[in-house]
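During the second half of the funding period, the structural biology subgroup turned its attention to how the target accommodates small molecules. The most pressing case was adenosine-5'-triphosphate, which had performed well in the primary screen but for which no bound structure existed. We therefore specified the complex as follows and requested a full 3D prediction, including the ligand pose.
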Amino acid sequence: MKNVVCVNLGDACAGIEDHLREQGWNAWHATDLPEAQRLLAQASAQVGVLLLGHLAASRLTAVQQLLRSSPEVEWVGVFTPQALDSAVLRQLALDCLFDYHTLPVDWRVLDLTLGHAFRRSRLRERQEVSPEVINSMGMVGSSAAIAQLRQQIRKVTQSEAPVLIGGESGTGKELAARAIHQGSARASGPFVAVNCGAISPSLIHTELFGHERGSFTGATAGKQGLIESANGGTLFLDEITDLPLELQTNLLRFLQERTIHRVGSTRSLEVNARVIAASHVELSQAVAAGRFREDLFYRLNVLPITVPSLRERLADVPMLAQHFLQCCRADRHRRPVQGFSRQAIASLMSHDWPGNVRELFNRVQRAVVMTDQRFITPCDLGFSVKDPSTGPALDEVRTLAERNAISLTLGRVDRNITHAARELGISRMTLYRLMDKHGLAHQMQ
Ligand SMILES: Nc1ncnc2c1ncn2[C@@H]1O[C@H](COP(=O)(O)OP(=O)(O)OP(=O)(O)O)[C@@H](O)[C@H]1O
Ligand SMILES: [Mg+2]
């Protein structure tokens, strides 16, 4: 459906709505800025037409705010020829408009322009996260923190020594472990993930080390354990602090001697598996509390890596949200969701993310199921809707959007300033200034 909002602030072009309806547009009409704002929130317009006579400099900011607060809309101006004598209006046209026309309107040309604007808006809706950013180790993100993580992962893939991955719950520790395995010489071997906290203490010994036939009641056949099944590949021990103390001793022996004993066997079996361990609690604290063997801690902590919390890489939130939206959309057959509303992005950016990336994924998944709109709202994401007067100020939203656009573009063009500036439509000097303002300059190192 082609939706257009006409904001007529100058009574400049009577009959335009009727003409647009004849051309197959769903046309809405506002004669002042508050009404325009309300329509934009409701109408899911792809295109806006701004009809202006003379624009006083004092009103420029309000009009600019309206246009910038609707980034999903392509705006086309219709002005009197005299209006363009004003430097203020020329600046507005350069900053915020897809194109402009002067009166009297040539309807054929205007129809063509609106068609182009519509197609451009559709193109932007379909814009997807660049595959290089996604495919870089399966980790989405272009923040300095994730770039540093990728660099650490690259280094440890060259080694065979144990890796200890720290980081809060849901940050992507398992993803990092998989990336290490995939990047290593063992990539063609198995990757065996074991959640030490999820296996009952009575079973964990036989699960990890396997058992021989007859070793306990009901053991009618011998069975390979998880460690053995990782032979030739990588053994990922998640939530390692949940491993009972007596098994910590067995694991230490395996790390030192590279051999294991199945339960009920005296025969030692050689196993060639690289060990990666992870924990969301500080292992050193578990050692201090007497819950974890100190010698095992040192054996595991040869190559420590910490996966940053989502809070520390907020710049990645829009890209991750977009990525998860694409994943969830793929298995949804209802009316397609096009993206996130401006308010939704603002609410994602102001959240504290205690559950990190997993929480973000869950919220997007929920929103895709729950929403009835083309653009996901804060409410769909499970955020309580605030009184608009206490919501994020437009300036705040704009600053965040600016920061994200720059951060995303830099990631996409591999930090090439010339390319990024060209893509953003600004000069290199302006880009340097904005990077400085948003604390993105360190991304260049
Ligand atoms: N950078 C990322 N890009 C894309 N998806 C990610 C990223 N980081 C994490 N995820 C996704 O978030 C979810 C949680 O990641 P993962 O299971 O690796 O976290 P974890 O740190 O092991 O969590 P826990 O401590 O709860 O075990 C997974 O669905 C994972 O695919
Ligand atoms: Mg995990």
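Two results from this model are relevant to the next phase. Residues 3-126 form a domain with the Rossmann fold fold (CATH 3.40.50.2300). The longest strand covers residues 3-8.
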